[in-house]
Please model this.
Amino acid sequence: MKVGIGLPNHVAGVNGPVLVEWARRAEERGFESVTTIDRLIYPGLDSIVALAVAAGATTTTTLVTNVLLAPLYPPVLLAKQLASLADASGGRLVLGVAVGGRPDDYVSAGTEFATRGKRLDAATAVWRRVWAGETVDGGLPLGPAPVTIPVLFGGKSSATLRRATTLGDGWAAGAVRDYPAQSSFADRVRSGWRAADRPGRPILQASLNVTLGDADVVEDGRRHLGRYYAFTPDYCALSVADMVSTPADALDAVRAYRDLGFDRLLFHPAVAGLDQVDRLADAVL
Model:
């Protein structure tokens, strides 16, 4: 199983230049991937820009959106941006997408919240056409093509199951340590994949929040998660409780998801201290 670490792009007030050092250190320490979390109305850094920075700072590291709130973006524009990032990075991009649950993000982006699922379905078809080099309006191709970008869908709804097994390349699981529930949905994805008569097998990707260090640092991480997910109290409490906070917890999570047959586990930092890269590497690599 591949193990990746998040860039701290979603931590409020993060110092942007740290992303370069973070990505380089992650590659040096042997993480397979770096990843981002997406959100509009929050004082963090843009997901695609953050991964572009990481692409320039690394040579082999996989770049993962986990997850991008794709319905916020015009599909043709997003298709070109992603194709450009995939091409510029030498084909290192993996796209995790979901619809999200914050109406304010959609209001601020000037797009509808209620129809975001339908628009994600339609956007996926547009992306595939653009990445294959097809024209959208009969004119010239819109970006680098052909490019191959695996698309993973996040969530646990019936719509997520349908998208992961018929439209995409697999599933991006949420950042919780409920291993039985994660395993159960992964089995549904595998079954749905076979029922759709898809070749091969779906990609299964999991994630967890992490803060390693002394008690004050760990508490800073919990406070971040409390602020970040405050809009949904139940999930907020679960995120805080499930945050990985010791090296032993981190290693146990790697072993658990590996045993469940997942292909990649991503650890999202809840603080922006560069030492988190080394602390996590020492624990799990």
